[in-house]
Amino acid sequence: MGAYGDAVAAIKATNFRHIALQAISLGMIVTSALIIWKGLMCFTGSESPVVVVLSGSMEPGFRRGDILFLHMGKAPIRAGEIVVFHVEGRDIPIVHRVIKVHENVEKGDFEVLTKGDNNTGDDRLLYAQNQLWLQRQHIMGRAVGFLPYVGWVTIIMTENPYIKYFLIGALGLLVITSKE
Amino acid sequence: MYSWILRVNTVLTLSVTVLAALCAVASMTDGLHRPSPAVELKVLNVGPLERLRNGDDRIALTLSIKADLESVFTWNTKQLFVFVAAEYWSPEEGFNQISLWDTIIEKKENAKIDQQIKSKMLRKATRVGYFTYPFQGKDLRGRDFNLTMYWNVMPISGAFFTDKAVVPGFQLPISYN
Questions:
Q1: Which of A9, A91, A115, B50 is most exposed by smallest CB count within 10 Å?
Q2: Is B161 exposed, middle or buried (0-12, 13-18, 19+ CB in 10 A)?
Q3: Tens digit of pLDDT for each residue in B148-170?
Q4: Could you tell me if A22 and A56 lie in one domain?
Q5: B chain contacts of residue A80, beta-carbon cutoff 8 Å
C-alpha cells in the first residue's frame, strides 16, 4: 500500500460526519486566506498590498519574479520613492521611481513624474496620451519592502494554469484525506 | 497516520517559516547600522535661464558631486540608488523636487563618487488642451533652491529606506536670457 492506496482507503472510510468536518476545515482555510488579504488591504491602505515584478525596467534593483510590499501612507510623495501606479488604458500597474515632484497648495494635490531605473527616458511615453504627470488618483501605493524570487510561484502559475489546478487539487486531497 | 505528502508539506511549511524569520531578522539588523557618509555638493556654473517655445523653463547647471557612501553598505544591501535633486519652495506650488543626476551603486568599492556633471533643470509648463500656460509661480525665475543628495538603500530582502544630505543656499537667475 502506497500513499495512493492510503488515500483511497481514507476516502472509502469517510462517513457524513467526516465529510462535514472536512468541508468546514476547507472553508476555514479559504476564509482565513481571504481575511489575511483583506486585513492587509485595510492595514496598508493599498488596494493591492503585495505585487509581483513582471518587467526588467527597474533592474538591477528589481528583477522579474521579485515581490514588493506596498503601503499607501499619509506622508506626501517625494522624489526617490518607488510607486505603483496605473495608467488609463493599461491593465497592468507599473512600478517605477519618482524623479520630479511639484505640489499644488491650492488644490492640495501633487504632480509627479516617474522613471524606471533601467530605462533611459522618463515615463511620459508610458502615460496616457497628453498626460504629463501622475496625480493622486493614479497612485496605488509605494513600495516599502522587498522579497526576492518568491513571485515566480505566481508567474509560473498564471503562465501554466495546469500546474495551478494540479497544486490546488493536491492540497484539496491533502485536506480531505488527513484525519485530524 | 502519516503519508509522504504530509511529510513534504510539513518540511515545506517549516522551511518557509524559517526563511521568512531569517529575512525579517536580516532586515532588522539594518536598523542597528549607523552609517557616517560624507557629501559635498557645489554649483560650479549656472547657465542662462530660458523660456522655451512650448512654455517650459530650462536652465543648464554644472555641478560638482563628491560623496563617500561606503559606510552605508551592510551585509543586507543589494544596491544604492543615489540621486541629486534641486529642491525649492514656492507659495503657489509648495514643495518642488527636480532630479538632476542619478546613479546605481552595486558594490561597496564603488561607493566613492567624485564627478562633475552638466544637467538641465526643466520645469514643464502646465498644458490645458492644446494651449500652454506659463502660469505665475510655475516657473524657475529667481528661485532659492537647495541641492539634496538622496540615497535609497535597496535590501537583498526586507525594508527600503532613504537617507539624505541637504546643501542649501543657491539661487537661479531673476530674468530670462
A1: A91
A2: middle
A3: 999 999 999 999 989 999 999 99
A4: no
A5: 81, 83, 85, 99, 150, 152, 162
